[in-house]
Fold this sequence. Notes:
With 307 residues, the protein is an all-alpha fold. It is built from 15 helices and no strands. The protein has helices at 17-39, 49-57, 72-83, 85-96, 100-115, 131-142, 146-176, 180-188, 192-201, 205-208, 210-221, 225-236, 247-259, 268-277, 290-303.
Amino acid sequence: MDSSHPxxxxxKFRLDRELTREVIINIAPMYVELLRELQSNxxxxxxxxxxxxxxxxxxxxxxxxxxxxxxxxxxxxxxLFLFGQDGLKEYAADLKAMTTEQQTAQxxxxxxxxxxxxxxxxxxxxxxxxxxxxxxxxxxxxxLNPEEKEEALKRAGWFWYFFFGWFYQxxxxxxxxxxxxxxxxxxxxxxxxxxxxxxxxxxxxxxxHPYFRERHEKAREGEEExxxxxxxxxxxxxxxxxxxxxxxxxxxxxxxEVSGWLDGGFTHEELLDICDEAQxxxxxxxxxxxxxxxxxxxxxxxxxxxx
Length: 307
């Protein structure tokens, strides 16, 4: 896989309200499943075996952590997955001739088209739920000619850049009240506490991100005991999602927050509808009605202030 780090200078845009809703009800179930699997591991943040195999099988995938230097890289990774490298170049050239409003409309139209198939058939090869389906997906890959296989592996890498990029953004919000991109930026400015929180959320930063790796090595060589103790504590006590009481609901809230629609974007009744369509169990998440949902929302905002 091409290990270059995706980036784009295209203007950042905010998806409209209805499209945000569609994205959440389609994507949230994937993140909820992963979060619950992490919770089942107790204090460990080790990914499920099927996802650990992804890191073993895709060369240099650990370098995906570079997307946390700039949130736009996560968006660009999705576009690279959908368009391919050449297609994205053409798409970006077209966008340069458009106004910001036209860019937003164009992007929203494309995302709507991608979501028209509510079954998201393309996701089946990335999330096979049985050994037989996993073997079938691998057989499809091996049946490609070398050029097609190379392109397929590149696109797979870009998909995982996007998938893990946003997952750890949301997890960071739920654990520390800040996106991982924010923590990484603060860490690079010398904030030791942010450094610790960042590796708490995604330990791969410590050995796959140049700044984090070099800063840790420098601390070891200089015997910076306070810094090393702080990082050692974070490594020994990884970012367990077990402290997240309502994982499914908090994934939805985090997605709404990042999208800019959490506050005032939807009525409580509409939020309940989103949760229903995202396959959240009302009883498990204690959102039996709008009054319960309002209480959960207050708790989410309070939990965002956790150290």
